[in-house]
Amino acid sequence: MSGFDAEVEAAQQLLAQRHERASDFSFRKKDRPAVLCADGHCLNGYDVEVTTRRRGVKLAAYAGGSGRRWVEQFGADLAARRFSPEGD
């Protein structure tokens, strides 16, 4: 299982905890070009787009690639009810 797949699974668990249907949401990963740091390490970042599954309405976008920060932000947005797939 890739890191992104594990992050999506964690996001789906957050949905289940809030009694939301995970099948209503879609998580898409868009890779960004790798960045070479001064110390010689490469950073691989990506963007995560959360959409409604049926119509593809964009609900949120997050920067990924730095641990599980986007999952934490998704959980905070979900708890604040900033978006909902209702009406999709």
Pick out its properties.
two-stranded antiparallel ribbon, alpha+beta, 88 residues
How would you characterize this protein structure?
This protein is of the alpha+beta class. Helices cover 30% and strands 28% of the residues. It has two helices and five strands; from the N terminus they run H-E-E-E-E-E-H. It has helices at 3-17, 69-79; strands spanning 25-31, 35-36, 42-43, 46-52, 58-64. Strands 1-4-5 form a three-stranded antiparallel sheet, with helices on one face. Strands 2-3 form a two-stranded antiparallel sheet. A hairpin with a 5-residue loop joins strand 2 and strand 3 (42-43). Helix 1 (3-17) runs parallel beside helix 2 (69-79). The longest helix is centred in the N-terminal third of the chain and has 15 residues, at 3-17. It is elongated and about 45 Å long. It starts with a helix and ends in a 9-residue tail after the last helix. The relative contact order is 0.20.
- Report the biggest beta sheet as strand number plus sense, adding barrel if it closes: 3 strands, antiparallel
Q: How far apart lie the N and C ends?
A: 30 Å
Spatially, the strands of the biggest sheet line up as 1-4-5
Low-confidence stretches: none
Radius of gyration: 14 Å
- Count of beta strands: 5
Helical segment count: 2
Helix/strand/pairing category: alpha+beta
What's the SSE pattern? HEEEEEH
What number is the mean pLDDT? 84
Q: What proportion of the residues is helical, as a percent range?
A: 25-40%
Strand content: 25-35%
- The general outline is elongated
